[in-house]
Amino acid sequence: MPINKKTEPLYNSAYLQIKKDIMTGRYQPGKRLTDKELADQLGISRTPIREALKQLIKEGLLSNEHNKGVSVFSPTLQDIAEIYVLRSSLEGIAAAICAGNERRKDYLYYMMEQLDISRKAEEAQDINQLVESNMHFHDLLLKGSESERLRNLIEPLRSKSMLMRYSSLTNKQHSKISVMEHEQIFEMVRQGEVVKAEKYTRKHILSAGNRLIKLIYEDESYGRNNSEWSMLAKNYSSYITSLLQEIKIDP
Which PANTHER family match (predicted)? Predict the structure, then answer.
């Protein structure tokens, strides 16, 4: 898709478009990207493309391996487990702060708006829209915490996790569960339930990570017949399940 050359610096427009294409699954993990191909697609020269790629490599969304070139980051099972466990703790804190923020009403309207978009996208199975609204909802939780330190810690983790989240949201049952869990989090934030907002958010992210690991395990393209790989997947799933069991939410 050609980008608008008049609104902002070309490298930034290219960066945003390529990042969006990565996050919404157009460029799948492991896909090789070349500056020529991207320049042709976006209708601009290679120079701003190279600047955009450098930034995405710095953020960890792209890998640059010797003799292999630039490709979309392809997380291992260990990467997925670590990222989701870290996210669950950090975003749980962000949700708790947001729920206790006297200015949270400034964010609730937009969170409700994203929930409405998510419901419609889930019903229509519009995966691209569902992924975008998912990202926006979590971003609003983070904004509601009004913590720059948390943002700096969470954003790189969330970007990487969304690389694989697209695969999970294509599963209708998974996407429905995700929307329902967002509704629970929203309600706890709206009511100012600090502890419950934190717990529901942790539970949501850990559950998403667990569903993703199980989904990958069931996908033959990931080599589920490899016994060593299968055992690793089960071990990580068991670890996340044990963390979920520790989260007790009072009625």
Answer: GLUCONATE OPERON TRANSCRIPTIONAL REPRESSOR, TRANSCRIPTIONAL REGULATOR, GNTR FAMILY
